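Lab notebook, bench 4. The sequencing result for the construct came back, and we need a structural model before the next group meeting so we can plan mutations. Quick request posted to the team channel:

Model the 3D structure of this chain.
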Amino acid sequence: MTRNEQRATRNRYNLSMKILVAHSPDPDDAFMFYAMVRGKIETGQYEFIQVYQDIQTLNRMCMAGEPDLSAASAAAYPLLWEKYLLMRAGASVGKAYGPIIVARERLSPDDLKGLLVAVPGKMTTAFLAARLAVGEFRHLVLPFDRIIPAVRSGTADAGLLIHEGQLTYENEGLSKVIDLGEWWDGETGLPLVLGVNLVKKSLGAEAIADLTRILSRSISYALTHREEALAYAAGFGRGLDPKALGRFVEMYVNQQTEAMDEEALRGLSELLGRARERGFVPEFQVEITGK
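Done. Here's the predicted structure in token form:
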């Protein structure tokens, strides 16, 4: 039975289509997926099954083709484009801010080349941007929430921070070495696209179009009903106070998240183009859905 025939059968008997949605257990992702997974918007025949994993694990899951719709690192897209389409909606985009490398003492970016840096995964955009900015460096892969403790304890000389660590590192007595979003802005004047959402090609054109619309509406709902969506996102905040939670969500869920504009797409193209020139990612084609 073809996918169109399966869809017609589901519609005839009012059956649901189960969609495995994977995203990180972080407040920004929770905020944008809130409306679609909590029934705040019309989702038609689709029933969403959620999986929460850190971004490196999500990248690996997509390599195996497991999720139907998933958050992923922009840096991982060249490894995933044959299975997944890039969605214009759902991106985490920073303009002059982004992942931060920190250390116990004040260092320059050049100092990092001889040090051990804890990183949240080799397929993350943070790691790619760090290599473009600093060059190659010794690194230790750790779950993102273990990086600050590793730096404080001396297990690593420095750490590459994503998620809420970008806001809390000073409270841990650590110093900024480089903000990769600031560096990228100085290099290019373009936004740094960190995370994206991907949808599996094998779902077929009709389902892809439906899911794209649903995700876009979910983000729009959250931005319109901010306090309601933040209350849900707080459950993923790992102890962030309400002010910091709101600030973090505002950093990475914005108009670019509703739909990447041409400037953000140029930023993504420039980032991956430079990575390809350096041999950090393989050849790929950008195939993107609508809003």
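The CA atoms of residues 27 and 234 lie 6 Å apart.
Will bring this to the meeting.
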